[in-house]
Amino acid sequence: MDRTTSKPIADDLIRPLFQTSIWFYAIVLATGTVVACGAAAWGYQIWNGIGVSGKRWPTFWALYLTNFVFWIGISHAGTLISAILRLVNAGWRRPVTRCAEVITVFALSIGAMFPIIHLGRPWLAFWMFPYPSDREIWPNFRSPLAWDFFAINTYLTGSLLFLLLPMIPDFALVRDRSTGLRRRIYGALALGWRGTTKEWNRLESAMQIMAIAILPVAVSVHTIVSFDFSMANVPMWHSTIFGPYFVAGAIFSGIAALILAMAALRKTLGLEKYLLPLHFDNLGKLLLLMAILWGYFVFNERLTVWYGNEPHEMAVFWATQRGAYAPLYWTMVVCNFVVPLAILSNPYTRTITGTAIASFGVVIGMWLERFLIVVPSLTHKQLPYSWGTYQATPVELTIMAATFAGMILLYTLFAKFVPIISIWELKAGLPSRLDPAALAEAALLATRLDTEEFSPDSSSTQGEHR
Amino acid sequence: MRAVYGLYNDPHVAQQAVENLRAAGVADADITVISSEPFDHFEFGHRDAKTAMPWVAVAAGAAGLGLTYYLLGAGQRAWPLVTSGMPIVPMWPNLIIIFEMTMLSAILATVIYLFVSAGLPSRGGRMYDPEVSDGYILVGVENPADAARLEPALAIAGGRVKRIS
Fold it and tell me: What ipTM, to 2 d.p.?
């Protein structure tokens, strides 16, 4: 098979690096403005003190920690899904993996900022780091916040490497098609990659090992984030179900974010030939599965609390079911369960638009879920004299909006400078006459098309070079 | 650097070129195959496939586990903190940090081993042709003793032979 026929694929996928549309500038300007407003709001908070946020006794964890949990959850879109699809060798993963892995790195970086913003005095963040100081202040390794430090940094390091390693061959490809300064930059990023069989074998081995290693790390990260809550004796937090519940929720919101990102990329970068309805259909099915799993966890959590009938837990329970937080709670149920089930269980509505609508609902619903975990429990603690209310301030809302804009900005810049679809992986997925999986697929296609063109008989050379 | 190589658009032809070079007496270690994608389903794609990388990852993970176990215990004994009646060296919470550091060690060792064993980063000056990026497969020999003798082995229908002097 002529492998140079893959040249148009490479041309298509690196085109956005060489051509800039007006949309790129518009998105960068709009999101950059919101990010600048967020930076100004954070500066205002640092200058005036944490009192400008809505955090008041007894609600000291509020919007910032809600966003921390939300963004860490979104980060599960990438590396986890990509690693699973790599390990099971799912052919349809090829155009999806890098779109997903990028979300992980940016969402984790954004999420990890929130505890520092939440501190109020960010210059003291290093107190969390494990170093023996001469003031004999040593991090308390029993604290879930110290576990967060280790888990998030391990996941971020692993995810960053998991993203960067497969980018090296694509940098080499861009290097070969560039001139001048761009050639020098991509040449440096390519690290002298040539594509020898040794380089390919080492890269593929490394990706396999990292996929195996990163899976338990991904699960551990969100489990440890759930420990921030479940280790505390606060109503409706102190629960053994929180670990898997958080992990399921994270994967759920992650898949939704991935579908939204893919739908946007497909339109803005003209990737209709590569991000196919099949990809949205498959991810839509995964999203449907996670919606059902999420509903199962919520039912378990709620039933146990209701059946236990502990007064301090029931106060939180009723506040969310029919009290002040009920509108948010039922919106969450509709967004996370009713809408995905209605749209995604029907093959006729599980289209690109349908999955994007369901995903948008899930992202909103999962943000509400994080808020409803954090705030109602703190406003309804064990003794009624300690009950309170929480009202987000413009400073908090501006910082929150800036992180959403920041995510779009980072993603846009990434897609401008790096091929957003892994070119070499896509090329490797093209059928080869010696590839049994591709042959089987071709044979199936031949049966469907009732044509001789894809007949396996044409592959008489199969295995001859083994 | 001197080199002689052929460029092929079909992996079957590239495989034939590799076999021709072997038949011409070139040692396997001296044959270089360069492509813009991995070819797992061809024999030439499995050259240099044997690697100790999984063992390096496991060994680094074990080393990370041991080191973190020691450092955590030593640190907690050196700066004893009493929290909620827990022991000074509490194993349950420590397991979380030990796990994370074990996996981080394995991941970092994998990446370091990848770079070292694949010779990355490389400064260049090795045999290469930018046409590889267009999908061509390069099969050649660097610093051959007699380039002219190898050219017929590489000159197969569907390929182009080039020489760097």
Answer: 0.94
